[in-house]
Amino acid sequence: MLESPYYLRYNTEMAVDPFSDILKLVNAQSVVSGGFTAGGSWAISFQPPGKIKFFGVVKGNCWLCVDGEETPVRVEAGDMFLLSAQRSFVLADDLAAVPVDAKTVFTPNAGTIAKLGEGDDCFLIGGHVLLDSARGGLLADILPPLIHVRAASPQAMVLQWLLDQLVRERVAELPGASFASAQLAQLMFVQILRAHLETSGPLAAGLLRAISDPLIAPALRLMHSDPGHSWQLEELAKAAAMSRTTFAVHFKLAAGVAPLTYLTEWRMRLAERALREEDTPVSVLARSLGYMSESAFSNAFKRVIGIAPKRYRSTAKAYGSTSEEDDPNGARPWKPSHLDHVEPLQ
User: Measured between alpha carbons, how far is 233 from 159 in angstroms, rounded to an integer?
Assistant: First the structure.
């Protein structure tokens, strides 16, 4: 039997996970913003959040009405739901009640529990997900407007445990509660995404479908484990136990692009991060990503991102863009089928 330290080290070294790579690239950080209790006849409206929002229903039930959707959604105790669309929404016990603005209910202090109406028949905890200003669209743009994980679903078991632990941390005021809550929120976000991948049915060609497709997973793991390697189509097809032609067709059906195009685009997103965050010379970065010359790398970067790497670096460092819309580089978001502060719940 292998000793535990070696076994853990072995697994850590071998467990290449493209989905984790993407979450790291966009720097996804989940934050518990607070929550509210409500009773009687009540309704509360939220403006377009400007970020990904998520809620857990700890107690009771209510309606979720999202702007642009005709049918309200009933959410109940144990349910989790995530809103990625930048739309206003209403949570209500009574659909006929006039909603109060969330900004008038919640204090500026994050993490507080507000009270709405009479009693505490319903209790929700909410939060949001912070994404890297330059690369966050890689994830945010491919999520559905609403992910609803119902308490009765098999995927909800872990989420309910996380929600219970989160409530316990906040109520008991245990040492390290703030740090523990942040980790629990991070796990909630990952588990909500996993539930979506498992239950959504056929996905459109793109990144989510690619990372959840078991047939091309071995090839994706190879590309993510060593993006600087000169991968050939034959090698990737062999890893996926397919013929070259079958693999190429299946990969494009899942990812929306050919395998080597995916590899190039992934390399450029890694390069984009390095140019923003590191001072590695462009020539060294080029070699680390599998390019024999700086000019070949620069041409690929400009083709994918839309700007030369040296100009990208100098502009990013000079202006320090805070959002994709304000990005002075005008970098192109990667769609294979193509906030730095805590805020209260509203």
Answer: 39
Q: What pLDDT does 11 receive?
A: 45
Q: Is 28 helix (H, G, I), strand (E, B) or coil?
A: coil
CB atoms inside a 10 Å sphere around CB 228: 14
Residues 193 and 93 in one domain: yes
- Cα–Cα dist 12/10, whole Å: 5
Residue 161 and residue 236 share a domain: no
- 3-class DSSP state of 304: helix
Task: In whole angstroms, give the CA distance from residue 192 to residue 184.
Answer: 12
Question: Could you tell me which residues come within 8 angstroms of residue 7 by beta carbon, excluding any fewer than 6 positions away?
Answer: none
- Same domain for 193 and 57? yes
User: Could you tell me which of 205, 200, 198, 212 has the C-alpha nearest to residue 254?
Assistant: 205
Question: Per-residue confidence at 210, pLDDT binned at 50, 70, 90?
Answer: very high
Tokens at 254, concatenated: 């899942």
> Smallest Cα–Cα separation from 31: which of 49, 16, 52?
52
For residues 112 and 106, is the Cβ–Cβ distance under 8 A? yes
338: closest CA among 145, 137, 158?
A: 137
Domain of 66 in residue numbering reads as 18-199
Instruction: State residue 342's pLDDT score.
Output: 34
Distance of CA 324 to the CA centre of its chain: 16
Give the count of domains, the chain. Answer: 2
